[in-house]
Amino acid sequence: MLRRLAATADVLVENFRPGTLEKWGLHPDELRERNPGLVLVRLTGFGQDGPYARRPGFGTLAEAMSGFAHLTGEADGPPTLPAFGLADSICGIAASSAVMMALWHRDTRGGAGQVIDISILEPIMTAVGPSPTVYDQLGVVEQRHGNQSANNAPRNTYRTSDGSWVAVSTSAQRIAERVLRLVGHPEVISEPWFASGRGRVAHADLLDQLVGDGIAARTRAEVLAAFEEAGAAIAPVYSARDVVEDPHIRETGMITEVDDPDLGPMLMHNVMWRMSATPGRIRFTGRSPGADTGAVLTSLGYEAEELARLRERGVIR
Question: Rounded to whole angstroms, what are the CA distances from 99 to 50, 92, 114, 275, 277?
Fold first, then answer.
């Protein structure tokens, strides 16, 4: 059945340990011999070959081995893992990009299909940044430093007088100057070290104290209004409730309402981009297992009696 599906498919995604398809007699070469245009995505923890290829792979392991956990958390605290599937999500986005590129090569460059080998580890390792390059060139192993940045300061989260949190970033010199004026310390701007990101990083604790004290004296609404009026970069730290209730997120369709046959209207993340000609939309919350099996297999020539026998045997739903 899988051979027949693959013979007419554009893309086949598999998420088993290396060698599983081959063990089942479904070698990629055989599948692509039947369908030269097939793009086969092989998604594993550590890739199809190498010393770790046979290891079980999960997002948590990739988050640890990529350098992410090592760089996340307070300087005197433990390496910190995310509370959600970060590595899995990044891998899924990277895999979809690879699929689009393979289909583009096939359809516009006269190429054939191909096999895509993608691991959970590599995309998040890339997203973590240039730490391997820094180590290679300078021998420096970057360390955790909480919410502070190694390139600019002040950069942190700060608590307001009403118990809310806001995030401030000063990746541009003029923004850093505006922030220090806003919190009542324009005198710091004239310090020689304030003129560069690296100089400010060397005095990050002082700047955090000044900015933190200034923000702590105001409510979140007052802080956000003052920063927005001055053109300084700030954002509230949101919970899920805040995300759902934010007018910009709702008005721009980042969160959309989709009707579920069992639960009724429910909010979901929308398509992650806005395309002018083909904007796309979320059509359903998730099909029930087996909801389309009959239609798909009937299109491949399976008769109703044969589908009934397969269901009885537990082969399909």
Answer: 23, 11, 10, 19, 21
Provide the β-strand partners of residue 235: 167
Measured on CA atoms in the order 132, 133, 138, 143, is the torsion positive or negative?
negative
- 3-state SS, residue 264: strand
Q: How confident is the model at residue 212 (pLDDT cuts 50, 70, 90)?
A: very high
Domain boundaries, the chain: 2-138, 156-237, 239-284, 287-317
205 catalytic, yes or no?
no
Name the catalytic one among 10, 49, 88, 107.
88
Pairing of strands 165-168, 234-236: antiparallel
Q: What is the CATH number assigned to the segment(s) 2-138?
A: 3.40.50.10540
Contact 158, 207 (CB under 8 A): no
**Dihedral of alpha carbons 134, 135, 137, 138, sign:** positive
How is the beta sheet containing 234-236 ordered, strand by strand?
Answer: 156-159, 165-168, 234-236
pTM over 0.85: yes
Q: pLDDT digits over 21-53, tens only?
A: 999 999 999 999 999 999 999 999 999 999 999
Rounded CA separation 160/220 (Å):
6
Both tokens of 12, joined, read: 């086949």
Residue 157, φ and ψ in degrees, nearest 5: -105, 140
Q: What is the pLDDT of residues 226-270, one digit of tens each?
A: 999 999 999 999 999 999 999 999 999 999 999 999 999 999 999
Count of CB atoms within 10 A of residue 259's CB?
A: 11
CA 126 to chain centroid: 12
Output the DSSP codes for 216-233: HTS-HHHHHHHHHHHT--
- The answer as to CATH 1.20.1250.20 being correct for domain 156-237 is no
CB-based contacts of 287, cutoff 8 Å, min separation 6 = none
